[in-house]
Amino acid sequence: MKAESWGTRLGLILAMAGNAVGLGNFLRFPVQAVQNGGGAFIIPYLVCFLLMGIPLLWVEWSVGRFGGKKGIHSTPFILDAMDRRRFWKYIGVFGIFTNIAVASYYCYIESWTLSYVFHSIIGTFRGMSQAEVAQFFVDYTEIDKTTLGIPYEAIVFYILCLALNTWILSRGLAGIEKVAVVGVPLLLIFGAFLAFQGLTLGTSGATPEHPDANSWEGINFLWTPQYDSLLNPKVWLAAAGQIFFTLSVGMGTIQCYASYVRSKEDIALNATSAGFTNEFVEVVLGSLIVIPIAAGYLGIDWVRENAGFGMAFQTMPYLFDKWGALLGAIAGVFWFGLLFFAGITSSLAMGTPWVGFMQDEFRWTREKGALSFGLIILAFGLPTVLFFHQGVFDEYDYWGGTVSLVIFALIEIILFAWIFGIDKGWAELMEGSDIKVPIVYKYIIKYITPVLLLFVFLGSFISPPV
Ligand code: PHE
């Protein structure tokens, strides 16, 4: 088999940025922030980024390239190569199942974005009231109803979305790189355009029904720090979970992508660039779109009461429609198209650990690996599609998208810093590096990050999901 690697450095960074930048940045971050007290969330969030997110990124890139040098591209085998004991392999397998759990509901949201691009083009939302737009989403996800005369439209788009993922995955790295090189710049441009709207909307979206609407209140809500909840373990768990989710750490996807980095190529700077790009998109663009725009038309109280993945789908089409038929349709295609690109460059990343494992373990072809991934996601994802309103979706997100990531990250960092050994690990990170990572991070990786991870993990027992 010919050894695969990323085509160019830009391709690698964009693929990694595309992996990290996703629905998490635009949809999950605002929801987590609102549910955890707005400004109260931001400080734990930034602390988690510096003390857990960035160190874990370096760890995962190092682990990945280490495996790649040995010709291994799947997390179970990479972890296995780091120590003689057999059980590390199963930790890697646990990571693969986390990917499957997350991809199952993630691809469902991704399929909404596809469907909403379609509906923006055909003008479904023209002239709808806010209540009708919100109801459209409920009908759409309540799949016993027909939407627009198409029965089970949600399932149709879900399958379409999985088919697209499967097809691109089956084309390997080159396919992923191509999607990222086009998708990531596009989503940055669309995002900047919409963030500008969020910033400048102010009170001009207020109506007699929502006289208090004000986009700046949305921004203030997020960015006025509140210190009282810093002692609340639930906020810390949510902040850590969001950092892991948004950086895509704690599941094995980064290791897989990094295993295709050429053996002498830099990882420290690449990891840092991809991580900071993600944070820029999340804290700047992610915080200036959904919440300010929803607050700008419906008021901040509405936002507080309706925070959820569906929020953006229940509000944005109505807002766009106010810009007129043509501009509204264009904005709809921009926004949902942006979400689609953000989503697919991430869900492809979730597929690579599975496909890599099937190739390494069973010598399957990539095509067979990709097809089996699509079918498994279909099987695991259908409950989230069929029972969306019964809370199945939120359970997947809590267990798959928060708790599992923390557990995996904790075990992985122990392996890296204590068993593989921090000196060896640090040397791996620094090999071929284009930057000098401050040496203090060697100690952070060894002592601080694992202890914090342990606290966050234990904290999750004190504070079950709300
Ligand atoms: N980081 C992606 C996002 O923010 C989600 C993701 C998680 C992707 C884990 C890959 C692995 O949407």
Structural description of this entry:
The chain is mainly alpha-helical. 77% of the residues lie in helices and 1% in strands. Helix 1 packs across helix 16 (325-362), helix 5 runs antiparallel to helix 16 (325-362) and helix 13 (290-298) crosses helix 14. A two-stranded antiparallel ribbon has the order 1-2. It is built from 19 helices and 2 strands. The model has no long low-confidence stretch (mean pLDDT 89). It has a single domain (9-462), classed as Sodium/glucose cotransporter, CATH 1.20.1730. It has helices at residues 9-20, 23-35, 39-69, 75-82, 88-122, 130-141, 153-170, 172-201, 215-223, 233-247, 253-258, 268-288, 290-298, 300-306, 311-321, 325-362, 366-386, 392-430, 440-462; strands at 146-147, 150-151. The structure holds phenylalanine (PHE). Phenylalanine (PHE) binds at residues 19-20, 22-25, 102, 245-246, 248, 251, 253, 346, 349-350. Residues 19-20, 22-25, 102, 245-246, 248, 251, 253, 346, 349-350 line the site of phenylalanine (PHE). This is Sodium:calcium symporter. It is a multi-pass membrane protein. The chain crosses the membrane at residues 38-59, 87-106, 150-168, 180-199, 235-260, 280-303, 323-349, 370-392, 398-422, 443-462. Keywords: Membrane, Transmembrane, Transmembrane helix, Transport. It is found in: Membrane.
